[in-house]
Write the structure tokens for this entry.
Amino acid sequence: MKRVVSLLFVALFLNSCDDGNLIQEDISFEAVATQSCSTNNIIYKLKDKESLILEIPRSTFNNEPSLVGLPAIIDINSANRLVYRFYNGTISTANICETIPPITPTVTDQWTATAGKIQIFTTAVKTTNAKDNSTRITGYNHNIVFKNVTFAKNSGTQVYETFPFGDYVTTATALPFGFDQTVEKCSSSNQIYNYNSSESLTLDIDRTLIASAATPLNTPRTGLIGDTNNKLTYRLFSGLLTGSYFCNTTTPSTPVVSEEWNAVAGVSNLSGIVEVTTTAFGTGFKHTIVLKNVTMKKGSNDFKLGDSYIYGDLYTTN
């Protein structure tokens, strides 16, 4: 009887060793920083004698925050490859990114993902100016998680229902906002504008805010940002911008607009406020326009102009 039990135990032990699906091997790279190659589409993580490599087109990582609960989901396939490698020595970036990698260390084993999903949730990385509470977008954080991923390995297959890769950060060039404080107005409409050679900030201002009368001390005229009245729009152009672009019946096709941001509608006494202080200037008036607590938005992206942003001075005559 004892012999039968012993043989049964040995048989069960051998069977568990042969079936790669029964032994869950842990892959843990969450605490390791993500790196990327500059000459190809590889992002990777290194840990002693192991590497986790994801080859994926850079265009996959959009500069647009994900909506809550709606990450981008991509198939693991020949265009989006995931491999887990083991080496016989400590590895470095050269082992991953060089066209001709070093002879040592060598790969001793490799797991190749054959199926699964890549889940990417993107958020904007912002810096805040402590003086005026303005924010600027400097990059995007892409949190990557693999779902239902199957690895093919020498001893069989390994399946993970949820396998976190971690964060991958891409940089973004902050919008210039290199405006002076000289504002101009179209004679045929209520649009005022400030611009330089590559960007513009237009405001379809309520004409009652630009009155030919000085405002009392510390009592500016006020209005709220809206979708039509007091509509504020920022545009970044890919070509040379000149004054001839403005005040046309139809918007010129050149220079081409590369980015357009619109201000979020204002809330009384809280946000999106336009303030105009008017003083006598020579035979006319100077209207100083200040934007209070304005947020600019493009898709799911947004940034703040700050507590008080000086749009500029508009000069009018009687």
